[in-house]
Fold this sequence. Notes:
Layout: H1 2-18, E1 24-29, H2 32-35, E2 39-45, E3 50-51, E4 56-57, H3 58-65, H4 69-91, E5 98-100, E6 107-117, H5 123-126, E7 136-145, E8 150-161, H6 168-187
Parallel strand pairs: 2-5, 2-6, 3-6
Antiparallel strand pairs: 1-8, 3-4, 6-7, 7-8
Helix pairs in contact: 4-6
Amino acid sequence: xxxxxxxxxxxxxxxxxxxxxxxxxxxxxxxxxxxxxxxxxxxxxxxxxxxxxxxxxxxxxxxxxxxxxxxxxxxxxxxxxxxxxxxxxxxxxxxxxxxxxxxxxxxxxxxxxxxxxxxxxxxxxxxxxxxxxxxxxxxxxxxxxxxxxxxxxxxxxxxxxxxxxxxxxxxxxxxxxxxxxxxxxxxx
Length: 188
């Protein structure tokens, strides 16, 4: 009986080691282009994602708060997009592709965030783990050849969660760094 339990445990451990990243799933195409020496433009569409909880669009959710809340939200996201780009380029290792912001690049990585949990500041004080209260995003990435508008690959991401921070700017930067890290993880 002990041998059977050890065998089952070993099989489960091996299956877990070869399981696909549960946060990212390649829906179509190939990731080979990321391994080639190419420049890829990054465009992120997240300014009007559905905010989890109230289930309202970001613009509606932040406009109700009044003042410059929506403008501040968008400014924080712009900094987070730059963090995605810098993290990818710094951590790509032996990968030859480079991401940036230029319409002259031959390929575009379109990141569409469909829903976002913006996290909360209270968790940074009372959180039990470093990710409690962090922002969370769901959506898709599509790599497009700009010359032909042909989709090279499509990736779905679910539950990318960043670390906690008392301000949304920190939570947004963290979640986009984790998004870049998850992308690098499936490319390698």
